[in-house]
């Protein structure tokens, strides 16, 4: 008589170590959105508008409650994920993502696609890949370019990276939240391009803040800087948008300063991994961190102007 113990239900459903996960065929019809803050809320509404069955969860239930008119509001992350074809996470950072997904446990079927949209860094994405393997999920690293308005309008640029077999499953999801998708190769490549792009975003914001502060302290109206560059080769819509916010003194967050501090640190981490010396980013990180510590962390990046 065999004395081998009978496997538990969790063991029966878990993928065998080293086995290839199979992504179910066809496009997703149900999506769990974990994280309904500045970005996730707009994405969830667009997913629902596209006809997908959307379940939402947020660590602060008050941030998820307004979505009850278009989605099922779950009381736990595991509840939101149970039976979902795709799990979309849009959480603040690596630690939050690891913690939330650890709580999902075995609620997802093996082969469920995990669309990870937060900016977590290069080593951070490696940790999420290991967690995905433990949970039996197929990780697609997909940070986005765009802030609150593009998220609400469904016009984000998605920097997707992951296995080719996950693409058909994700097609209806990505169509709903984006105007363009760039597929970049293996999971983690999305993080790499996102950090390069965010280095540029942070540099532009800090450059505008410094130029306007210098204009002001030299005895001129800082609005003259924006007027001088307007419409020329040095101008850009982002320059004018952030510059006008700095002039107005109103900074509702489309990209919170606290997120800028986090992302600047991730850019520096990536540069160290790659062996690239960055001359500007250490100063940008230090200045934005100082502005956040002065009480502007929940305001927009443009609030960095206050501390010049």
Low-confidence stretches: 1-19
- Globally, the shape reads globular
Helical amount = 40-55%
CATH topology label of the largest domain: Rossmann fold
Mean pLDDT: 93
What profile does the largest beta sheet have? Answer: 6 strands, parallel
- For the record, the CATH architecture of the largest domain stands as 3-Layer(aba) Sandwich
* SS content category: alpha/beta
What gyration radius follows from the Cα positions, in whole Å?
21 Å
Number of domains: 2
**Order of H and E elements:** HEHEHEHEHEHEEHEHEHHHHH
Number of strands: 9
What is the CATH superfamily of the largest domain?
NAD(P)-binding Rossmann-like Domain
The first-level CATH class name of the largest domain = Alpha Beta
**Termini, distance in Å?**
79 Å
Question: What would your notes on this structure say?
Answer:
The protein is 48% helix and 12% strand. With 308 residues, it is α/β, with parallel strands linked by helices. The chain folds into two domains: 160 residues, Rossmann fold, CATH 3.40.50; 116 residues, Orthogonal Bundle (N-(1-d-carboxylethyl)-l-norvaline Dehydrogenase, domain 2). The protein is globular and about 65 Å long. 44% of the residues are buried.
């Amino acid at each position: 008589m065999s004395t081998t113990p009978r496997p538990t239900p969790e063991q029966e459903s878990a993928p065998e170590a080293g086995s290839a996960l199979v992504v179910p065929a066809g496009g997703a019809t149900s999506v769990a959105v974990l994280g309904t803050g500045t970005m996730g809320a707009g994405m969830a509404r667009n997913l629902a508008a596209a006809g997908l069955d959307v379940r939402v969860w947020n660590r602060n239930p008050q941030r998820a409650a307004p979505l009850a008119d278009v989605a099922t509001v779950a009381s736990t992350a595991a509840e939101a994920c149970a039976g979902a074809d795709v799990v979309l996470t849009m959480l603040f950072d690596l630690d939050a993502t690891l913690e939330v997904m650890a709580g999902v446990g075995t609620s997802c079927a093996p082969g469920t696609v995990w669309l990870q949209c937060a900016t977590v860094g290069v080593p951070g994405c490696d940790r999420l890949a290991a967690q995905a393997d433990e949970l039996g999920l197929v990780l697609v690293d997909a940070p986005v370019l765009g802030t609150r308005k593009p998220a609400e309008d469904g016009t984000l640029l998605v920097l997707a990276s992951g296995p080719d077999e996950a693409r058909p499953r994700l097609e209806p999801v990505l169509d709903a939240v984006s105007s363009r998708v760039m597929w970049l190769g293996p999971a983690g490549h999305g993080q790499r391009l996102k950090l390069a792009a965010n280095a540029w975003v942070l540099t532009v914001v800090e450059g505008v803040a410094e130029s306007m502060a210098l204009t002001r302290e030299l005895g001129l109206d800082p609005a003259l800087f924006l007027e001088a560059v307007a419409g020329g080769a040095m101008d850009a819509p982002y320059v004018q948008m952030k510059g006008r916010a700095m002039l107005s003194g109103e900074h509702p967050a489309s990209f919170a300063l606290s997120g800028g501090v986090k992302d600047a640190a991730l850019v520096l981490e990536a540069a160290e991994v790659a062996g690239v010396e960055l001359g500007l980013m250490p100063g940008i990180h230090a200045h934005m961190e100082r502005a956040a510590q002065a009480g502007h962390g929940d305001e927009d990046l443009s609030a960095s102007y206050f501390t010049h």
